[in-house]
């Protein structure tokens, strides 16, 4: 290991003019400079000996003070996080690398936010739940008409308008990718959903062959006795029974 006196602490030379230019607009910088020159009260609860001036730059505890400029501070974090030499380290390592040469108030918060928002780090985030199965793509069927394969979902807790606070969203998963929105209430049940589907989708496109959903209670809670088939999951994506049930309940509700 080389002796300490062979190491020098450097500020990037191309950044120095930028530091000097921005420093005049920075109140903390000016306070620190005034304190050094006039031996007045030290800024932000630190001892005067913590601050030094060298070639127009302020050093706080031997680390260069970075003036309050968002883009300059962001550039520095980027250099210490995104560069190939840094290799996208975590927030503590990034902070440690940065603290070797630079300092500014609120450095930890800014570095944390930057690293948490780094797209590259997000993409390479390790899977901490390796037992969770990956999402399975839904296979495409041979469909011959619109809304033959549909996905259904409810958007709830919207601001109330005309007595409605939710929307039933039916998407054609097969041919057209078309979407039908039907206003409803959050308290809608299976029969209400079936009636809504009948009114907004069935009358125009007929019975679906397949319905895909997250098995929400608005349909999965259909009692077996109403379904007429024991154990028939109303939201079973692979079941042909639900569309039949849906048609039957919709007709009885709508025509009564
Ligand atoms: Zn990153």
From TrEMBL:
GO molecular function: nucleic acid binding
Gene3D superfamilies (UniProt xref): 1.10.340.70, Ribonuclease H-like superfamily/Ribonuclease H (3.30.420.10)
InterPro entries per record: Integrase_H2C2 (IPR041588), Retrovirus_Pol_polyprotein (IPR050951), RNaseH-like_sf (IPR012337), RNaseH_sf (IPR036397)
SUPFAM superfamilies named among the record's database cross-references: Ribonuclease H-like
Superkingdom of origin: Eukaryota
Domain Integrase zinc-binding: 69-127
Protein name per Swiss-Prot or TrEMBL: Integrase zinc-binding domain-containing protein
Organism field: Trametes cubensis
Lineage, opening ranks: Eukaryota, Fungi, Dikarya, Basidiomycota, Agaricomycotina
């Amino acid at each position: 290991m080389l002796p300490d006196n062979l190491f020098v602490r450097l500020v990037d030379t191309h950044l120095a003019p930028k530091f000097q230019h921005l420093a005049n607009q920075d109140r903390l910088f000016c306070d620190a400079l005034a304190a050094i020159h006039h031996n007045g009260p030290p800024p932000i609860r630190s001892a005067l000996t913590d601050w030094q001036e060298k070639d127009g730059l302020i050093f706080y505890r031997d680390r260069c003070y970075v003036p309050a400029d968002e883009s300059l501070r962001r550039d520095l974090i980027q250099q210490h996080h995104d560069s190939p030499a840094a290799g996208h380290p975590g927030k503590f390592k990034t902070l440690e690398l940065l603290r070797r040469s630079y300092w500014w108030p609120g450095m930890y918060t800014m570095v944390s936010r930057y690293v948490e928002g780094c797209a590259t780090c997000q993409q390479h985030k390790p899977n901490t739940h390796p037992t969770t199965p990956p999402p399975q793509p839904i296979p495409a069927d041979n469909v011959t008409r619109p809304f033959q394969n549909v996905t259904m979902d409810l958007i709830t807790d919207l601001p109330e308008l005309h007595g409605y606070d939710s929307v039933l969203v039916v998407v054609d998963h097969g041919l057209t990718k078309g979407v039908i929105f039907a206003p409803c209430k959050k308290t809608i049940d299976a029969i209400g959903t079936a009636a809504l589907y009948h009114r907004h989708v069935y009358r125009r496109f007929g019975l679906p062959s397949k319905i895909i959903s997250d098995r929400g209670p608005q349909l999965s809670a259909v009692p077996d006795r109403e379904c007429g088939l024991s154990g028939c999951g109303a939201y079973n994506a692979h079941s042909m029974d639900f569309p039949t049930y849906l048609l039957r309940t919709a007709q009885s509700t709508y025509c009564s």
